[in-house]
Design a protein that fits this description.
The chain is of the alpha/beta class. It has one domain: Acetylglutamate kinase-like (Carbamate kinase, 3-Layer(aba) Sandwich), CATH 3.40.1160. 33% of the residues lie in helices and 20% in strands. The protein contains eight helices and twelve strands. The strands form two sheets. Strands 3-6-2-1-9-11-12-10 form an eight-stranded mixed sheet, with helices on both faces. Strand 4 and strand 5 form a beta hairpin. The longest helix is centred in the N-terminal third of the chain and has 23 residues. The two termini are 22 Å apart. The structure holds Isopentenyl phosphate. The site of Isopentenyl phosphate has 17 residues, from helix 3, helix 4, strand 7 and helix 6.
């Protein structure tokens, strides 16, 4: 099983609210479709928000810890993410990929300590039946806080753990985690390996930048790769492009 995240900034124009990067999304959909044609089985896709969701969430003051009970705000943020999910699935369906939606707001929740619970039976069954479930960063019910943001990265981590994924891929706008001279760091085995270069994302991003991604991936058992769109096909073909985040023994 492969859990693949399409970074929101990789498939949208992050500077312009609610704008898809048509070319980038088409090329991601091509890579996925080609990989499935070549025999890939067991793929779960999660996409982030990019210019969908983040602007809405920050406008309403909602984050992974700051919740809302305003139903209009919930409709706005969740609606933006559903819109993007529709675009992603449409591009996949056009290429005969059996993409189906899974909306975390309807399935997951956080307990009073903010811990995410995401039942994965639905995703597992869909994969077993030959579908490609497409999840997305979203809002989730949060005990004591109304509804808070769940990032695509957090969903990837939960899915990878609970579905015992073999590989995790994070398709980003950069070719990997870059060092001070903008060279891709091949391997990160501990946060300290890259702490100096892991800044926060500069565009509006309510769920944290590369640092948060690396931290979450380091905690997982499956090996993860962070790479650019141009390497998606290679990743899906079994290669390890970009930066590999290895398991801490
Ligand atoms: O782009 C964020 O998902 P992410 C989703 O994966 C919302 O962090 C609602 C802002």
């Amino acid at each position: 099983m492969i859990v693949l995240k399409l970074g929101g900034s990789a498939i949208t124009d992050k500077e312009r609210p609610e704008t898809v990067d048509g070319e980038a999304l088409a090329s991601a959909a091509d890579a996925i479709s080609n990989a499935l044609d070549d025999g890939l089985e067991g793929l779960v896709v999660v996409h982030g928000g990019g210019s969908f969701g983040h602007h809405n969430a920050s406008e309403h003051g909602v984050s992974t810890t700051e919740g809302t009970r305003d139903v209009a705000a919930i409709g706005d943020i969740h609606g933006a993410m559903r819109t993007l999910n529709g675009f992603v699935r449409k591009r996949l369906l056009e290429r005969d990929v059996s993409a189906v939606p899974v909306h975390p707001f309807s399935a997951a929740h956080r307990d009073g300590n903010g811990r995410l619970a995401l039942p994965t039976g639905q995703v597992e069954t869909l994969v077993g039946e030959g579908f490609v479930p497409v999840l997305h960063g979203d809002l989730v019910a949060h005990a004591g806080a109304g509804a808070t943001v769940v990032s695509g990265d957090e969903l990837v981590a939960t899915l990878a753990r609970d579905l015992e994924a073999d590989r995790i891929g994070l398709c980003s706008t950069v070719p990997g985690v870059l060092d001070e001279s903008d060279e891709v760091i091949d391997e990160i085995a501990a946060f300290e390996d890259a702490a100096g270069v892991l800044g926060e994302s500069d565009a509006t991003d309510v769920t944290g930048g590369m640092a948060a991604k690396v931290r979450a991936l380091l905690a997982l058992e499956a090996e993860a790769s962070i790479f650019g769109l141009e390497d998606l096909e290679a990743f899906l073909a079994g290669e390890e492009p970009g930066t590999t985040i290895t398991t801490v023994e």
